[in-house]
Design a protein that fits this description.
Blueprint (H helix, E strand, L loop, with lengths): L3 H14 L8 H19 L5 E10 L2 E9 L13
Antiparallel strand pairs: 1-2
Length: about 80
């Protein structure tokens, strides 16, 4: 499920709060966020974990990504049908 308030905050972050060299105008930020959401749905649609923190570090020509996530509580009924 998409939380539109989170999308709004992501666009604001990309256009005003990231380091100046990484900022993009809000319309371009929306395109980036839409592409990310589409890829998540297509590639990871059955993954219901929530990313709580993400850290990206440049390593040579590549990047290393570390993330802290939270999975659904299996004691909370059938979580797959709650989305």
């Amino acid at each position: 499920m998409v939380d539109f308030e989170e999308i709004r905050r992501a666009i604001a972050t990309l256009s005003t709060q990231v380091p100046p060299r990484l900022r993009v105008p809000a319309p371009k930020a929306m395109v980036i966020v839409r592409k990310m959401l589409t890829r998540k749905r297509e590639e990871f649609g059955d993954d219901h974990r929530l990313a709580l923190d993400v850290d990206v570090v440049r390593e040579g020509a590549g990047f290393r990504v570390k993330a802290i996530g939270l999975g659904p509580n299996p004691e909370y009924g059938n979580w797959k049908t709650k989305a």
